[in-house]
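Human
Can I borrow your eye for a moment on a structure tokenisation matter? Give me a protein, with the fold worked out from its sequence. Write it directly below this note and I will take it from there.

Assistant
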Amino acid sequence: MAVDQRTRRSRLGNPTGGLSGPAIKPITLRLVWEACKAVKIPVLGLGGVETATDVLDYLLMGANAVQVGTASFTDPQASERLERDVREAFFDSNLFVINELIGKFSTEIG
């Protein structure tokens, strides 16, 4: 919710709006992790995807694919940039197959 005190109206066009972008990433990472443990179908990761690290985080949680949303508003080329950056991150980590990363999040401490 956002209000303009001068006009006394919503800044969003509707009284309330949704939460998106980086603010929801910690929440949606957990939800992707929980969903991947609960179902045997592909899971899509989304929420706060702006960098290659964000994409890799969702893959580690078990997501089979990642959606880019809000980042596209400020950078229409976000998807293309992320594809290039993720490819570079894979090579930098000596990863060559995406399945080497999907679902490899460890809950062990230390």
Remarks:
- The chain has four helices and four strands.
- The chain has a mean pLDDT of 92.
- Helices lie at 25-38, 52-61, 71-74, 78-92.
- The longest strand covers residues 44-46.
